Q: What sequence folds into this?
């Protein structure tokens, strides 16, 4: 039987933005990013796998992640995959059906949709939040709004 999981609600988004501050606490850098991915993955059922990549020269390098398994894509050239595309364009990408997007680099067989949100600092992309969903069309404009707010918080804790 196919089960569907709840998508993010506006109330939950608000609550999580507040919660994020207390969960991250005084942490910065990698520790802060670890706390962020754990919170997002554990609290939002539709976020099956949550990762943060950092820009390293011409590549994105996986820095922190939370989910059922590790990805083989720990280094992605900027410009490649949905991740590399979002980093190059400097804007959020939502893929409602990964099987229909030729840019998609597969990590998990269960993934059906994906959202990638750049983290921007002083006008430059310094990294991104990458989330996989096991349902088609798991991400809406609310997820975009919410994760762009999370990315702004991440940016201030980046180093
Ligand atoms: N699917 C991504 C690669 C990263 S994994 O989802 C963790 C992409 O197409 O860039």
A:
């Amino acid at each position: 039987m196919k089960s569907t999981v709840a998508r993010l609600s506006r109330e939950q988004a608000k609550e999580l933005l507040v919660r994020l501050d207390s969960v991250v606490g005084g942490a910065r850098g990698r520790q802060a990013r670890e706390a962020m991915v754990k919170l997002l993955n554990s609290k939002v059922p539709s976020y099956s796998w949550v990762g943060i990549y950092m820009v390293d020269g011409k590549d994105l390098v996986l820095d922190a992640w939370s989910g059922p398994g590790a990805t083989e894509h720990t280094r992605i050239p900027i410009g490649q995959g949905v991740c590399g595309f979002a980093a190059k364009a400097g804007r959020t990408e939502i893929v409602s059906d990964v099987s229909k997007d030729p840019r998609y680099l597969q990590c998990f067989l269960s993934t059906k949709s994906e959202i990638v949100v750049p983290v921007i600092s002083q006008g430059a992309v310094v990294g991104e939040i990458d989330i996989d969903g096991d349902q088609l069309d798991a991400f809406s404009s609310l997820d975009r709004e919410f994760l762009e707010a999370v990315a702004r918080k991440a940016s201030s804790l980046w180093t």
Q: What stands out?
A: Helices lie at 10-24, 29-43, 81-89, 141-156. Strands lie at 49-56, 59-66, 75-77, 93-95, 113-121, 124-133. The mean pLDDT is 95.
